[in-house]
Amino acid sequence: MQQNQSETSSGNLVVGVGDYVVTREKEKVIMTYALGSCLGVTAYDGKAGVGGLLHFKLPTSDLNQEMAVQKPAVFGDTGMAAFLKELFDLGATRPNLDMKLIGGAKSMPGSNFFNIGERNLLLARRFLWMNGLMVSREDTGGGDYRTVRMEMETGKVMVKDPRGTYEI
């Protein structure tokens, strides 16, 4: 499902907030911007040549069932289910999926009022664990916004934040 994804002039696939992209196109780079309290989930199966990126905003769909049906990727529970289904439909397998989590920052440093970032992170970890998937790397928490790039040819995930650009 490529909901509100757009393609840049360089051929990069850009994932908006509350969306995801799953592809088999090796020449593509999948990107998302402004991961604050939102959570980015990358998945890559090098053997099947399938990968994707999910950018979800809120942990659970019980807040708005109607929106969960219309835009499942807004919520972690419905977004992760749809994201994984599409990965598996394109040939990814649990033993070969490399999962990474990025984001989950405090949206208002010093305030624990909603804890959206922490709740998003906990939901993702639990959801993946319950589905037999382990997270290989994380770059989560803190208070900074992050940009994420995943190269489909290699599965390499790069994160850019105020500290610089680095691979996770």
Can you describe this structure?
The protein is an alpha+beta fold and 168 residues long. 21% of the residues lie in helices and 35% in strands. It has helices spanning 65-70, 76-89, 116-130; strands at 6-7, 13-15, 19-23, 29-35, 39-45, 50-56, 98-103, 135-140, 146-151, 157-161, 164-167.
Keywords, separated by commas or semicolons:
35% strand, 168 residues, 3 helices, 11 strands, six-stranded mixed β-sheet, five-stranded mixed β-sheet, alpha+beta, globular, 60s Ribosomal Protein L30, Chain: A
What number of domains?
1
- Output the number of helix runs: 3
Number of strands: 11
- Average residue-wise pLDDT: 92
Largest sheet: 6 strands, mixed
Question: How is this fold's topology laid out?
Answer:
Elements: E1 6-7, E2 13-15, E3 19-23, E4 29-35, E5 39-45, E6 50-56, H1 65-70, H2 76-89, E7 98-103, H3 116-130, E8 135-140, E9 146-151, E10 157-161, E11 164-167
Parallel strand pairs: 2-4, 7-8
Antiparallel strand pairs: 1-2, 3-6, 4-9, 5-6, 5-7, 9-10, 10-11
Provide a quick synopsis of the model.
With 168 residues, this protein is α+β, with helices and mostly antiparallel strands. It has 3 helices and 11 strands; from the N terminus they run ββββββααβαββββ. A hairpin with a 5-residue loop joins β1 and β2.
